[in-house]
Specification:
Elements lengths: L1 H101 L2
């Protein structure tokens, strides 16, 4: 009877050991999948960081281009005002000449 009890305990322990082994295999597979997923995500993060740096550089360059264009626009507007003043002066001179010619 005692041998039977020991044998039953031994079989229970074997069953428990098989269950633990099965759980360990499941955990190992899960760990492997998790590591693969982590590696994939790390690569994705690295790629996104590169894209972010590139976009940031393009943004800075675009801002500098905008500043240069604004300076150029201001200069062209100033030149336009100067040319309009010259045209007005010439027009005034012509009007004065015509007036002088009429009243001679």
């Amino acid at each position: 009877e005692r041998a039977e009890t020991v044998e039953i305990k031994f079989m229970d322990i074997e069953d428990e050991l098989k269950l633990v082994g099965s759980k360990q295999q499941t955990l190992e597979v899960s760990e492997e999948k998790a590591l693969e997923n982590e590696e994939k995500l790390q690569k994705q993060i690295a790629e996104l960081m590169k894209k972010l740096l590139l976009a940031d550089t393009r943004s800075e360059n675009a801002e500098m281009d905008i500043q240069r264009l604004n300076v150029r626009i201001d200069k062209v507007e100033e030149d336009l005002v100067v040319e309009k003043m010259k045209i007005k002066d010439v027009s005034d001179d012509l009007n004065k000449c015509f007036d002088d010619m009429l009243y001679i």
